[in-house]
Design goal:
Layout: E1 14-16, E2 22-24, E3 27-29, E4 35-37, E5 43-48, H1 56-69, E6 74-79, H2 86-89, E7 94-97, H3 106-117, E8 121-125, H4 137-143, E9 146-151, E10 155-161, E11 175-180, E12 183-187, E13 194-202, E14 207-215, E15 222-225, H5 231-234, H6 237-250
Parallel strand pairs: 5-6, 5-7, 7-8, 8-15
Antiparallel strand pairs: 1-2, 3-4, 9-12, 10-11, 10-13, 13-14, 14-15
Amino acid sequence: MGGDVAPTFVAITAELSGDGAVVDAASKTATDGSLSLNWGDGLRTLILGGGASHDYDRWFNLEDVATLNATPGITAQYTDQTGGLASAIAEVDVLIVSNNQAFTDDDTKRAIFRHVRSGRGLIGLHPGLWYNWADWPEYNRELVAGGSRGHDRLEEFAVDTTAPEHPLMHGVPAQFNLTDELYWFEVDPAGPAVTVLETAYSKQKQRSYPQVFTVAQPAGRVVGITLGHDGDAHQHPAYIRLLRNAVLWAGNRTVGASDPVNHSQ
């Protein structure tokens, strides 16, 4: 799970101009490297992706963006640009950090902290809960309250709900099985308090680890979801429900107010 830098890919719809040139209809990277986005209605949700060990475009971009855009009250976009994002993040309601490639400027890092401290939502999703950045320990310690440095081999395991009354668990089975990487997420005792909502038992470590949790922050709402290696997770009904619930909850919206459309069914 390294922090290898991948080529930038901003993946949203495109259209043809009058002369046949391709024009990105939803985003633009300016000459100074900043990213501007055009949004639909609902919670503005930006997924940050890119890096090693995952098919980011297929699952975090195409699949998760479609899942969220099929959910009433959410508008979602994706980028694997990890620099020049400060102005874009300032317009976002919910930020999903799933990249493991390096952030390329300090302004973007500060914008992520400012995003949470201003009362908005953040979700650490799968690779975004790894200890990716030795030069930025504050992310793991202060924002997502820990991290993982290893996981079980890719195989089927059971996920158990420990806090069924929490809004994030609305519509999520009390137990479900999926094939994924069971992250060995460790809570940082120096970080903010964590409320564990779901756990899974590691056969390799012979102990249970948090899989879904919330992190106490003075203002913004932070969620951690360790699940999400590939299609076995991203197309799983429980994962889809968790992702939708997490965005709505992190965006301070009522979870379960309406039944979202499941684009994969």
